[in-house]
Amino acid sequence: MVDIDLIVKQLRENGHEVEDVHMVPPNAGEYNLIVDGEGVNLDEARIILEHDAAKT
Question: Is 23 helix (H, G, I), strand (E, B) or coil?
Fold first, then answer.
């Protein structure tokens, strides 16, 4: 199960603007987020967090 609240919290703590989070029907468990004005899925959000972690 995905902890979407934790992902959003980490993105925001890393300075990203998260405007919208919504579950994508009919793919139960799949989410789309608006991060820094761009639509991303969970895999893309993970990549953003990995890049942020590599900077530190």
Answer: strand
- Low-confidence stretches of the chain (pLDDT < 70) are 1, 27-29
Q: Shortest CA distance to 36 belongs to which of 56, 2, 8? A: 8
Contacts of 24 (CB under 8 A, 6+ apart): 30, 31, 32
- For the record, the structure tokens of 29 come out as 């468990």
| pTM (2 d.p.) | 0.73
| Sign of torsion over alpha carbons 55, 44, 24, 3 | negative
d(CA 46, CA 14): 13
Reference 52, options 9, 23, 4, 5; nearest CA is 9
